[in-house]
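hey all, quick one before standup. I had two proteins in the batch that finished overnight and I want to keep them in one place so we stop losing track of which output belongs to which input. First protein below, input sequence then structure tokens straight from the run.
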Amino acid sequence: MSIKRAALPDSRGRRFAEKDLEPKIRTAAAVIFGNVLYALTVQLFLEPSGLPTGGTTGIALFVRALTGFPLSTFVLLFNTGMLIWGGLELGRKFFLATILSTLVYPLALGAFEHLLAGVVLTENVFLNTVFSGLGIGASLGIVIREGASTGGCDIPPLVLHKRTGMRISGILSGMDYAILLLQALSNPPEKILYGFLVILLYSLTMDRILLLGTQKTEVRVISQHADAIRREILTEVDRGVTMLAGSGGFTGAEETLLVSVISNRELPAVEKIIRALDPEAFVVVSRVSEVSGRGFTMKKRYLDALTREPEGRSGEEGDTGSERGSEDGPCGL
């Protein structure tokens, strides 16, 4: 009788499994951290000053003002109900992606209510407003940046978008301001005005967090010394360059347009190179909100071969290396 041994996974299979697991662990850690930061912000700045806000927390504050119902308990019940509804409407994948936020935020909020009871960092309403907006915006940005949802009041806009095609951002903003105005029944007008500031600040902060580290600078150059500038950017700045063929709108003369995407800190060095080689070069600098690809979101590869010389100026030519053999994407990606 022959005995067959089960094949053991090889090291390559284990590496693939580890690589697949790492981003999931990173996402889970970011979601947990974002929700804990949200709860801490509410406990340290929002609650002590009695500031109104939007979202699930705003509804919970309104209900507590009318009935005395515990804030964290209401958030847990509300988020759970929204999670079940979202799972039925948006599917199992959404349910699994949102369950962590649904549970972590109210549980962390409940823990901080006991651990930090009576702790007041400042009684200045303006300072509490500023730090509430910054903290909530940062926490939401951290969670959403990982492709996750904070649950609660995030879910109705997603369902309405699926059914009607309405813009999610518009529904979210409308809900936040409606919840804020609802709290006018239990807050003086001055507090409601501070509430508008909280929402404005956390919206701006969240946008900044979502773009953090992704903003780059695009440089476009038209010059009679395009090849020399190209070589200097490749060798001195170690960024890729794309060469585009063009012609002057007035003269009709053929021109070479250089395009390179660089980090914001590299801009002075690139401008210095351009001005040194051609003070009359036409330069356009633009801010790019997001960049992905080799050299930015992927590591560079270095080639042994030198950068090939451009062959004419017909069509678009994406450079794949530098004099040091760096393989960036087109424009330095």
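OK second protein, same deal, sequence then tokens:
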Amino acid sequence: MPRLLVRSGGTVTGGCFMAAFCFSRLAFRSLLTLVLTGAGFFAALPASAAPARIIILRHGEKQDAYRLCPVGNERAQALAAQYLGKGAKDSLFPAGTAPAAILAVTLHTMELAAPAAATWALPVVMYTALPEAPTSPRKKRAKAAAATIAPPAPPPSAPAAASTEQKPKTGGRDPGKRARKADFTQLVTSRTQQAVHDVLTDPRFTGQTVVMVWEHDHIADAALEAANPGQEVTLRQLLHLGALPDVPASWPSATYDYFWIVDLDPDGKPVRFTMQRQVFDGAFATLPSNEWGAPNGLTAQTRCAL
């Protein structure tokens, strides 16, 4: 009976030695069948892992850099009940389907996404970008108190020396704060790039719907894009939405109440773009629902950042 013998060095011979592997004709046929079956399996895999749809929205109204205000928290609950949660009244997901993933990037976006994700028993997938922690109120009070303590008066016999020290003029701006903001922007940019790469290549998302709750200036911001030539820094750029008509160049700072719905072909190319305003009824009917770019009507009484 013919035998195939392969030595560790790759030499094929007609004898069977202790250092060689001996295969019967039946074993060889089984191996060949396995290889051909495997080739057929991999050939059947899609060339791209792109989802069929990406739903993009901004976080809710915020109180500060670390949390939503009461209006933003109410919006999170309303979105779960009406658009994004399991059994939602006006669900954005095709009947009988669920989101493959719900992604977020900052504390604001996670806070908005959490109620809807919980209804599906899904985790919020975080591409974590956290702002630097602020100075604690205790430290702020101590610093303010130290600044109000007058230095001891000089002895009567010693004339007061006139100070010649020139204090730097900052125009009331904090250079450290500007640096922290720039670092945070760069961090969100990096996380945004990573998130889009994963969304477009993860086979678990193939043909599914993915929700991305994001920061508005990293959804679309013409100024941010212009400040980073040669890079793709927003979802608008990374998903190539500029190839479609009627995609805004920037997301307005006062607009919290819109979805961007992007349909993709199997290769991940955007083929349709829809903007949908969030309109709520029932217990959530009083939530701001302004037109794109229009004032949102927030006041200081809402405890939201204006």
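Flagging for whoever picks this up: The radius of gyration is 30 Å. Confidence is low (pLDDT under 50) at residues 1-46, 160-165.
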